[in-house]
Design goal:
The complex is a heterodimer of chains A (285) and B (258). Chain A has helices at 2-42, 44-48, 63-93, 97-109, 115-134, 141-165, 169-177, 182-193, 195-211, 214-220, 237-244, 250-284; strands spanning 53-54, 59-60. Chain A is mostly helical. Chain A has two domains: 2-47; 63-284, MetI-like (MetI-like fold, Orthogonal Bundle). In chain A, helix 6 runs antiparallel to helix 10 (214-220). Chain B has 258 residues and is an alpha/beta fold. Chain B has helices spanning 50-56, 87-93, 108-118, 124-137, 141-144, 157-171, 187-200, 213-219, 237-242, 247-253; strands at 12-21, 24-34, 39-43, 67-75, 78-79, 94-97, 175-179, 205-209, 222-227, 230-236. In chain B, the strands form two sheets. A six-stranded mixed beta sheet of chain B has the order 6-7-8-3-9-10, with helices on both faces. A four-stranded antiparallel beta sheet of chain B has the order 2-1-4-5, with helices on one face. In chain B, helix 3 (108-118) packs across helix 4, helix 3 runs parallel beside helix 6 and helix 6 (157-171) packs parallel to helix 7. Classes of the chains: A mainly alpha (285), B alpha/beta (258).
């Protein structure tokens, strides 16, 4: 009797655990089923490397969107990574523990703000500022990069904080005992020891940035055009899907699924790099 | 408390040293004279304050929030707790070897030259020369000369600990503080470190905290026995181990507690 309950519970838990894996598999199968035949029909070259996106005329080149996604993501990294890493170093090394206990949750709360709110702030505050001071339409790569940079801050910072926190205190003591200043101990030893964890944080942040949709639609301007400068308006891969899915049908709809595949691959690659980086850290100790 | 008969001015003098962690009085009126080019051992049961005393000598206790220190620690006559003391320079003069080997997660080479780099020493030739000299002094050169750019963390524990010694040799401190340097090592590795200490004694003043009575007895010239934050006896090692003046020292050495 008892053994029976055990088996039932075990099977039930297995089922629940598998459901996560199954949904991933289903999503992947679904996207690929819709997208791959399209890529084969149009040809990967014409799809990935052509700059003409005119679905009504049968032209499906997503090259500008790929470039836009890369620019926006790298821009977000330029904003988010230094802030996140510096913040993590500062909180861990230069501030009393009590302050850390207040500030860290506060920064993690940033992750809880809905992305539409970020987009709203971008449209109302940031874009006008850029338009007034730097020129261009305001809704631009730069605006998207700054907004996304702040959005990925919690990811970068909390993973970097954990990595720095995991550095044994004996390294700090060893450095200080050799006459190093606090800052020398931090940048010559602690940050190096935490390097792979910090890299993992930055890459996971990039994964978030490239996948973000709502805020980007609101602040990037959505022009289908490879950007010439950070002040140009762009449309990312995610924005392309979200903007057109509502009315797309037939080939057009399949083109959007194919866009999803490209995005999926980008994020998979980034996540694998991040996981590999974290593994080196675990193995390095 | 009595001091060993001194022939010269002691290298390091501690006078009326009191240390509080918050409300806990960890060191009570501690005093001692440490002679140049001798090994001085600090013994006593766990929690008696011997590590705390050692860490007061290079101001590592400054790092702990809520520590208050009064009294004097003089190295070559200069009070290291005087206002305006350059703590980084002080720590470079009083090298420390820790309980667990703590080489940095860098290459052997970068570990050895770390102290020089933070002091602003540049120039490949100077650093290269320092690496060879330091590794030789710590008896590591033959093991590691072909592996200078390999990770220090890949070395066996006793080599890691000797690398930590080599790291000090590079900056040529005046005093070497050792906080139970052999407690993480097996007996063979311990023997190597001890042999190394006897060699280093020719040039350096060494203060070692140890839990190992035999180690204190065979290695040190002078010994201080601490109990509950007080230095209950400080004397020549021979004398303390054969004929302790304080009954509590006698009890500790003979293993009645600890």
């Amino acid at each position: 009797m008892r053994l029976n309950t055990e088996t039932i519970v075990e099977k039930a838990l297995l089922l629940v655990a598998l459901s996560a894996l199954m949904s991933l598999l289903l999503i992947a199968v679904f996207i690929f089923k819709e997208g791959v035949p399209f890529m084969v029909k149009v040809g990967p070259g014409a799809f990935l490397f052509s700059s003409e996106w005119e679905p009504q005329n049968g032209l499906y080149g997503i090259f500008p969107m790929i470039i836009a996604s890369i620019w926006v993501t790298l821009g977000a990294m330029l904003v988010g990574a230094p802030l996140g890493i510096a913040g993590a170093v500062f909180l861990n090394e230069f501030v009393p523990r009590g302050v850390m206990r207040v500030v860290k949750p506060a920064i993690e709360l940033l992750a809880g703000i809905p992305s539409v709110v970020y987009g709203f702030i971008g449209v109302m505050v940031l874009a006008p500022l850029i338009r007034a001071h730097l020129g261009g339409p305001g809704l631009s790569v730069l605006a998207a990069a700054v907004i996304l940079g702040v959005m990925i801050l919690p990811t970068v910072m909390s993973i970097a904080t954990d990595a720095i926190n995991a550095v044994p205190n004996s390294y700090r003591e060893g450095a200080l005992a050799l006459g190093a200043t606090r800052w020398q101990a931090v940048h010559m030893v602690v940050v190096k020891a935490a390097r792979s964890g910090i890299i993992a944080g930055v890459i996971l942040g990039m994964g978030r940035a490239i996948g973000e949709t709502m805020a980007v639609i609101m602040v990037a301007g959505n022009a289908v055009r490879a950007p010439g400068s950070p002040l140009d308006s762009v449309r990312t891969l995610t924005a392309n899907i979200a903007l057109e899915m509502g009315y797309a049908s037939g080939m057009h709809r399949q083109a959007l699924f194919a866009t999803g595949i490209v995005l999926f691959l980008f994020i998979m690659v980034l996540n694998s790099i991040a996981m590999a980086a974290m593994r080196t850290r675990a193995g390095g100790r | 408390m009595e001091h060993p008969a001194t022939h010269a001015i002691p290298r390091l003098q501690v006078r009326n040293l009191n240390l509080h962690y918050g409300h806990f009085h960890a060191l009570i009126n501690v005093g001692m004279d440490v002679e140049d080019r001798r090994i001085t051992a600090l013994i006593g049961p766990s929690g008696c304050g011997k590590s705390t005393l050692l860490r007061s000598l290079n101001r590592m206790n400054d790092l702990i929030p809520g520590v208050r220190i009064t009294g004097e620690v003089r190295i070559d006559g200069v009070d290291i707790y005087a206002p305006g003391t350059d703590v980084c320079a002080l720590r470079a003069r009083t090298g420390m070897v820790f309980q667990r080997p703590n080489p940095f997660p860098l290459s052997v080479y970068d570990n050895v030259v770390f102290g020089l780099r933070v002091a602003g020493v540049r120039g490949k030739e100077t650093l290269d020369a320092a690496v060879e000299r330091s590794l030789r002094a710590a008896w590591l050169w033959d093991n590691l000369k072909d592996n200078l750019y390999g990770s220090a963390l890949a070395l066996p524990l006793d080599q890691q600990q000797r690398l930590c010694v080599a790291r000090l040799m590079a900056i040529e401190p005046e005093v070497i503080l050792m906080d139970e340097p052999c407690s993480a090592l097996d007996p063979i590795a311990t023997a190597k470190i001890e042999e190394l200490m006897l060699e280093l004694k020719k040039q350096y003043t060494i203060i070692i905290v140890t839990h190992n009575m035999q180690q204190a007895a065979r290695m040190s010239d002078h010994a201080g026995c601490m109990l509950l934050g007080e230095m209950i006896e400080f004397d020549g090692t021979q004398r303390m181990f054969t004929n302790p003046r304080d009954e509590r020292t006698q009890d500790y050495i003979s293993g009645r507690y600890g």
